[in-house]
Amino acid sequence: MFADRAKIIIRSGKGGDGHVSFRRELYVPNGGPDGGDGGRGGDVIFEVDEGQNTLGDYRHKRKFKAEDGEEGGKRRCHGGDGRDIVLKVPEGTVIMEAESRKVIADMSGDNKRQVVLKGGRGGKGNQHYATATMQVPKYAQPGQPAQELEVLLELKVIADVGLVGFPNVGKSTFLSRVTNAQPKIANYHFTTLSPNLGVVDTENGGFVIADIPGLIEGASEGVGLGHEFLRHIERTRVLVHIVDAASTEGRDPVDDIYKINKELEAYNPEIAARPQLIAANKIDCIFEDGEENPVDRLRAEFEPKGIKVYPVSAATGQGIRELLFGIRQLLDESPAERIVFEQEFFPEDVLITENLPYTVTKAEDDPHVFVVEGPKIEKMLGYTNLDSEKGFAFFQRFLKDGGILDELENAGIEEGDTVRMYGFDFDYYK
């Protein structure tokens, strides 16, 4: 069974807790703190596997977890880091947050490996908290918690050209003739159930072509397997309509093209606007009977709209060469860059919206120092590199979006006052 969609739960590793311990040696009655740091939790990494072409590995297992970091030990021993978990996916897989369907990563093009969830940082041992006034710290920092996320994996095939058409119009036969692909071919009145890919080599350059399973009316609304099929043409640069010009099953080829373009428009107008060609198939079954030639009818209807019509027979090979050169020419005239979906969802930013408590108070010894504490603050600081410009911008956005700046102003903070957060001091300016 071809699997091009899966919903799984991924979880990074928790950071190991820092350790609380003190030196206990002969002749050293009051040894200092020597608690070690906890290990880093493992990351969740997605990696492209060129040998895979489906998401079948994720059909029967739903939860994937990286390893937790180990707790720090005595004598300043650092806890071991948790092992990362690497999830292999076929090229073209798009990783989305399951509920919002926003893109986290598109595993195509140059993006062969991406960390989607970072493991928690290990907590600091009590050796880091000794000061002149606190020489026996009995506190160690806990490791940062793991991140967990439900993600939707969707495979959107990577092809230059997409073959579209209703069932049983000859798409699979055409693909088998022009490429080395070996789709199952029979007189199916339903449809091929999975997309087939093949590489076409012509004298003026090759390209990848995909036989998109036959569409039906209402596909854009999810009727039948509509959404399952339509997603596979999202990356294609050129669309080729395959129609039964001979109407061997009573279908009107002109009406078929309008119906399919209507489904494409409803699903994604940008796809419907891409360059198109028409392959008027089964011309070997057209007999002169005094009626208007269906190929002439197709040309009269669509060539004034800029859509060229090529009469072909996938069964005999007639007209195939001309069609392939026409496709190659249209590709050369189209933008060459691959269609890659931009990231819309950033798992680390979810921390901003977490409803964790915090407090804003004035320092007892200085009315111009405001202390902000709470698990929300500590967690954010643990995930943020304040030494980088991007990290500091993230920190400022956190203060604003989390309502912390409003709380500080309500507490009476003024320009030049100090904001203190878990060992960090910041000057406040509007």
TrEMBL record:
Organism domain of life: Bacteria
Record field: transmembrane = none
Q: What is its main location?
A: cytoplasm
Q: Which CDD domains match?
A: Obg (cd01898)
Subcellular localization(s) per the UniProt record:
Cytoplasm
Cofactors (names): Mg(2+)
Question: What Enzyme Commission number(s) does the record list for this chain?
Answer: 3.6.5.-
Q: Where is the Obg domain?
A: 1-158
InterPro entries linked to this entry: G_OBG, GTP-bd, GTP-bd_Obg/CgtA, GTP-bd_prot_GTP1/OBG_C_sf, GTP1-OBG_CS, GTP1_OBG_dom, GTP1_OBG_dom_sf, OBG_GTPase
Q: Which GO terms describe its molecular function?
A: hydrolase activity
Question: Where is Mg(2+) annotated to bind?
Answer: S172, T192
SUPFAM superfamilies with a match to the protein in the record: Obg GTP-binding protein C-terminal domain, Obg GTP-binding protein N-terminal domain, P-loop containing nucleoside triphosphate hydrolases
Keywords (alphabetical) are: Cytoplasm, GTP-binding, Hydrolase, Magnesium, Metal-binding, Nucleotide-binding
Question: Domain named OCT: which ranges?
Answer: 350-430
Name the positions where GTP binds.
165-172, 190-194, 211-214, 281-284, 313-315
Looking at the record, the residues that make up the OBG-type G domain are 159-332
> Could you say which enzyme class this protein belongs to?
hydrolase
What job does this protein perform? Answer: An essential GTPase which binds GTP, GDP and possibly (p)ppGpp with moderate affinity, with high nucleotide exchange rates and a fairly low GTP hydrolysis rate. Plays a role in control of the cell cycle, stress response, ribosome biogenesis and in those bacteria that undergo differentiation, in morphogenesis control.
Family that this chain belongs to: Belongs to the TRAFAC class OBG-HflX-like GTPase superfamily. OBG GTPase family.
Q: Which HAMAP family match?
A: GTPase_Obg
| Protein known as | GTPase Obg
**Species for this entry:** Blautia caecimuris
User: What gene codes for this chain?
Assistant: obg
